[in-house]
């Protein structure tokens, strides 16, 4: 596949799902970060506030111990109890002196040094005021503000799930001792700091609203991603669907075929690439309509699909052609299978005989350029001709060369005509009675600037196929008219010169007028121009042929039937077509074993032609015996190498027209 084609397909297939999926993840990530920040900032602030409150209360309690002595013990006790009664949070108050001796306690509890934990570790909070300092021997030291903390709770169990159902149960609870210096003593207050869900109403509302928003986003994204995935699937399907058959299309054939051949690198399996086409599909469409034609293709596809086995692929290519990559064991098996496929396709339209052409390329191990392989199969099919029969043709290198040659000829033909690279050669026709010049045939030669001399059989069939023959024949006719006009003014003796008129001309109804117009430009008498046509023109528009011949003869031209006896000639055409000259094909005189029968037929044909008032020209005569035989049969003219090969006009003029 060409690079640009590959690019185009890639572009079509390119789906934009990944950016959307990434976008979704990004949104979720941003959401998670915002949530985390909001939640942690809220929790931190709340705990901060709670802790700051606890610190203030502890300081207040500690103040009552400022002037502690045994007498004031009672009043202090009352103050402490009043605090404890008012504030649920305060669980206990204990006092130690500077030697860490227990002085006073509301509950008899004293914190142990081993329980001291850095408040920084608690919830990961950082709070300058509440950082705790512990010395090497785990003694509590005062921090700058004189406030230190000891936590006695189990940090792992902060969150209480039951609080979700019951508002009175704290969501988080932290027990900690706050230690405040008072004189030489340290007053330690045990706080039970609780946080309830209701404390987080704002945060929860925010999280919920934000969550809903994000959920809407996520749903929207998910929907668009899913619909995109569907549309990608749809696009891929469209890219790979053939609009006529509704099945696999050519792109998919290439894709699947390439991967099959890739896997078959070592040639474990024999593969054959087939170009299978229905002959005369265009005619079918002309008769029954394009819709019926397409229905037929669809039916072919369905029939073929049934024949395709594992590790094989098939697709509609264009018009009535299908590409098949089949496995095979040997040529006999392959041909039997093709036969079977063609029979099956013939069943598609019962009662109508259809013909198929199959071009086959036997894939060599390592080959995997599907389009190139198919091209070979197609060339093989093309070379098998447009016959009305089922034909299997194998590709060979010669076919490829022929194809390349055809392309070169087509590239160069217009330029060649403009540059007068086509030369007229003349081959004399000699009368049998007096052995003098009785006529000549104009035959084209191409003198190509790089290829040199090219004989007509290398380009005429190509021109007949592509229609350029119309221009070339006109050119040859004009050249002959010009030469004859020149010779006429020079006072030379004129003999009729025949020009070949290809069968392709007989589609235009004004052919006779067209020929007259060309010749009349040079003011030459029509009877010095002869027009050679072949019987094959009968196969096209018979009426045009008969009319044209009649008009040309009426205008004074001589009309001859070329190659009589070659191919499928029939005497019937002589009955219908009134012509002046019959040119007997050289084939009658070739081959040792057919000679006798051939000669017999020639004498009979000559006899018949005489009776029909026609002149006879024998072509391709190479030996004296042939000449003598023809003279005996009273053949009028002989054209052949025995007398002369075709030669340039100037040489001809010197030799025969002096
Ligand atoms: P054709 O019209 O049957 O021309 C006769 C061919 O037989 C010529 O081949 C001629 O050179 C060849 N020939 C003549 N005598 C002998 C002989 O004794 N032995 C052998 N072996 N061959 C002989 P050429 O010139 O190669 O032309 C081949 C065909 O090309 C012609 O067959 C004709 O069909 C076509 N052609 C040539 N020039 C033109 C043209 O200007 N227009 C069209 N439409 N076709 C042309
Ligand atoms: Ca001829
Ligand atoms: Ca001929």
């Amino acid at each position: 596949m060409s690079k640009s084609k590959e690019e185009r397909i890639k572009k079509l297939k390119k789906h934009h799902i990944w950016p959307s999926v990434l976008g979704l993840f990004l949104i979720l990530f941003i959401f998670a970060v915002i949530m985390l920040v909001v939640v942690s900032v809220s929790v931190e602030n709340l705990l901060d506030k709670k802790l700051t409150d606890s610190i203030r209360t502890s300081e207040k309690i500690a103040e009552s111990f400022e002037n502690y002595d045994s007498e004031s013990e009672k009043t202090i006790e009352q103050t402490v109890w009043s605090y404890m009664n008012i504030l649920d949070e305060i669980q206990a108050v204990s006092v130690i002196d500077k030697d860490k001796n227990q002085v006073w306690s509301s509950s008899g509890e004293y914190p142990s040094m081993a329980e001291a934990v850095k408040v920084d570790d608690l919830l990961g909070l950082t709070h300058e005021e509440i950082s705790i300092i512990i010395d090497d021997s785990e003694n509590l030291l005062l921090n700058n503000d004189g406030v230190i903390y000891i936590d006695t709770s189990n940090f792992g169990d902060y969150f209480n799930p039951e609080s979700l159902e019951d508002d009175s149960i704290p969501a988080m609870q932290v027990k900690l001792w706050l230690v405040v210096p008072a004189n030489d003593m340290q007053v330690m207050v045990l706080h039970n700091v609780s946080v309830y869900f209701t404390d987080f109403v704002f945060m929860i509302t925010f999280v919920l609203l934000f969550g809903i928003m994000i959920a809407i986003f996520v749903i929207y994204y998910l929907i668009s991603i899913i619909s995109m995935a569907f549309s990608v699937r749809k696009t891929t399907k469209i890219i790979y669907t053939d609009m006529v058959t509704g099945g696999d299309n050519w792109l998919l054939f290439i894709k699947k075929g390439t991967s099959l051949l890739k896997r078959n690198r070592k040639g474990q399996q024999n593969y054959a690439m087939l170009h299978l086409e229905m002959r005369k599909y265009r005619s079918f469409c002309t008769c029954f309509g394009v819709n019926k034609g397409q229905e037929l293709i669809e039916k072919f596809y369905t029939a073929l699909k049934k024949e395709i086995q594992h590790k094989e692929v098939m697709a509609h290519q264009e018009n009535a052609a299908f590409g098949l990559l089949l496995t095979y064991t040997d040529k006999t098996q392959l041909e039997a299978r093709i036969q079977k496929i063609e029979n099956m396709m013939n069943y598609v339209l019962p009662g109508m005989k259809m013909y198929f052409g199959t071009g086959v390329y036997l894939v060599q191990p390592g080959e995997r350029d599907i389009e190139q392989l198919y091209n070979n199969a197609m060339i093989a099919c093309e070379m098998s001709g447009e016959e009305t029969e089922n034909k299997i043709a194998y590709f060979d290198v010669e076919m490829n060369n022929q194809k390349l040659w055809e392309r070169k000829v087509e590239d160069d033909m217009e330029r060649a005509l403009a540059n007068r690279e086509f030369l007229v050669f003349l081959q004399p026709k000699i009368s049998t009675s007096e052995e003098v010049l009785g006529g000549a045939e104009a035959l084209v030669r191409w003198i190509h600037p790089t290829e040199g001399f090219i004989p007509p059989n290398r380009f005429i069939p190509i021109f007949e196929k592509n229609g350029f023959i119309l221009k070339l024949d006109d050119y040859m006719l004009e050249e002959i008219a010009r030469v004859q006009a020149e010779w006429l003014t020079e006072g030379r003796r004129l003999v009729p010169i025949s020009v070949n008129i290809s069968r392709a001309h007989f589609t235009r109804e004004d052919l006779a007028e067209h020929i007259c117009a060309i010749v009349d430009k040079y003011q030459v008498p029509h009877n010095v121009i002869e027009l050679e046509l072949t019987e094959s023109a009968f196969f096209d528009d018979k009426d045009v042929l008969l009319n044209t011949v009649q008009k040309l003869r009426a205008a004074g031209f001589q009309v001859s039937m070329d190659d009589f006896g070659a191919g499928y000639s029939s005497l019937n055409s002589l009955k219908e077509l009134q012509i002046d000259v019959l040119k007997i094909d050289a084939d009658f005189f070739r081959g040792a074993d057919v000679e006798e029968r051939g000669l017999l037929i020639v004498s009979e044909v000559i006899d018949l032609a005489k009776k029909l008032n026609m002149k006879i020209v024998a072509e391709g005569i190479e030996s004296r015996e042939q000449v003598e035989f023809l003279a005996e049969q009273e053949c009028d003219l002989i054209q052949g190498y025995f007398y002369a090969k075709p030669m340039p006009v100037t040489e001809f003029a010197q030799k025969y027209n002096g």
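The chain has a mean pLDDT of 84. The longest strand covers residues 437-448.
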